[in-house]
Structures
1.
Amino acid sequence: MAIKKIAIGGISTECSSYSPLHQNKDDFTCIRGQELLDLVGFPFLEHGISPLPLFFNKSVPGGPIEKQYFDQIKDQFISEINSLGKLDGILLLMHGAMYVEGINDPEGEWMGSVRKAVGPECIISVSYDLHGQITDKIINNIDAFAAFKTAPHIDVQETYQRSASMLVTAINDNLRPIVLWSSIPVLVSGEMSSTFVEPCKTIYESLDQYNEINGVLDCNLLVGYVWADTERATASSVVTCTNERAGSEVCKKIAKAYWSSRKDLKSDMKTGSIFEALAWLKSEFSIIADSGDNPTAGGVGDRADVLEAFLEHRIDHSLFAGIASKTAYEELKKGDSFNLGGTYGGGGPELKLKADSVYFKNQCAIVKISKTTIIISKLRRPFHYLKDFHELDINLDDFKILVVKSGYLSPELQSLSTPSFMALTEGSVNQNLVGIENKYRNKKIYPFEDFDDYLPLVSNGKSKVT
Ligand SMILES: [Zn+2]
């Protein structure tokens, strides 16, 4: 028997429609070849399947993707698929929260084009972020689906492997799974729906139990992405199954569980304004998350609101990690005066500053102004790992306060077990949800509207399923 062939690839980013910073090819890194196979880490050959890596393009979340770039990269993906000849399957690695002006459903367009290219027989298995969006068009074009079950995400490769495993089984056992979904009219931030705290902890744990039901393969809850004002924005339950009736039952149960918990969705961190954050400051080492400008959720990462407040109130021994500003980085290469704030388009106060000392490492300028240290990064980037500080020769023990551009803290920062506070700051990913612009979203979504009459409807992408 001829060896079966599958392709692997996709595109992953999260786009705030509130960000002024458009994404194009310069924002994406491209993973190809063996590196892409290693990223998935699934032993396809042991199952008699030859995996053919295409490309996986990934960016730090940001603003809308330029339509020209989206069209071009999608066309390139399709032409690479076409160059492989007949495929038995494809593993699509997607995030699910792209926003492209003029395209209602970019992932739906992507998957629709893939389906057209590979034909109706080819099995399409998808891996997704739980902050992704689902539509009938997406579901109608795919055969298997698995999304992350942790946020912060610590099961990325496991999720790729769940999708890979369903793909391999479908090809080798000659079966065609069904994907069902149900929209849930709830949209909250990732910070309010961490899977490590209730109510989501219990709901996500229940997904593994539902997977044990006969005829059910893989159960998912997607909280969706709140900072894109689009028609398709919603939370959803998604179930891959071989028995439509069993799958539909579970899909409704997951949807109901999330809906019933909606009023318990709250941030597990202490929250408040910048000034409440200043009043909260502890004598021991503590962390403040500047959440409205968090680049890993789609914020720009260049705002200086918190820095301005700290400098005004002369709060010493603080470390800002970091503020993105290519222009400030270049000014500091020439002298000690520099301007900070809003230089990438994120807005907020503009500060004229003078460095007492500065050194450069890893495309960052590490600036000292009196007893405040600021990491100015040339590029937009998070500081989520302890190695990010070590690499810049920064010892956190030298500081009393760390200010990061973040929502909920990354697992490594959380592991410091230090008091933390989420400042509800301005920016493209403002956590004050009821205040954000809401022109295109379905208005009947909690918390934008509070209502009680919701009954989950299940769809297979083509029609309603009972
Ligand atoms: Zn996510």
2.
Amino acid sequence: MLTLYDAGLSPFAQKVKMALVAKGLPFERIVPDLGNPPADFLNVSPRREVPVLVDDGAAIFDSAIIVEYLDDKFPDNPVLPKSAVDRAKVRMIATLCDSQLEAIIFGVTEIMVFKRASGELGDAILAKGRADFATFFAWLESQLGGRDWFNGDAYGMGDMAVLPYMQTASLYKAAPAVDTPLGRWFERAKAQPGFQRCLVDAKAEIADFRSATEKVMSGRWPRQYRDHRLDWIVRAGGINIVRDGLAAGTIRLSNLPGAAR
Ligand SMILES: N[C@@H](CCC(=O)N[C@@H](CS)C(=O)NCC(=O)O)C(=O)O
């Protein structure tokens, strides 16, 4: 049996779950407390991040690596396209979604959910979020290039990489208009069973996430500002948010494998 260290609201974990469902692979979920990570999770996740897949004693981390591992180990119902060029295209879309699009979502969440800033600064960061969503979505639409799926002929990893972010953007009222190619893709993709499965897990955990402000702001679950997340919040004008959060211990940087927190 495959075991997935999961978090219902993690876009990275959702991508893996969509791949597991599309491939018809049964799995069990463990949802670790990321604010107080248990030893079994720390043993398999050197970056203290979900998702991690455990298969027959082997622990695989990083969502893109896990999805590729699943296709390597279980070749039936592949989620990556066949041709080298289509595979490269899908990987390029996934890497930009997981870095730059994720950073916009993360930054907007810091304002909307964790109330890192209000007034003029909060409004400016949210406005930058809306503008950057629009810019990124225009690029995504160009990648769709008139096809039905980001993966090429059929739904697959390219679509799984975009869907979680589009879902959060729609919760933030930034989804593409339904009468655009990207909006029509979103309607088609939402019907996929793997996405529906992710919605069930996300809904079960959303109340806890929304009420985690006390946990975050007391320093018990510092939010991880790293690479593109850090880049985006600074460019959005939030450099003092970073400085103050690091000083207060409500923001942490990335975890060096092997290091204590
Ligand atoms: N590059 C990693 C990123 C994983 C990641 O950032 N996971 C977040 C959840 S969305 C996490 O576990 N963060 C730890 C924390 O919030 O303490 C992947 O693709 O799997």
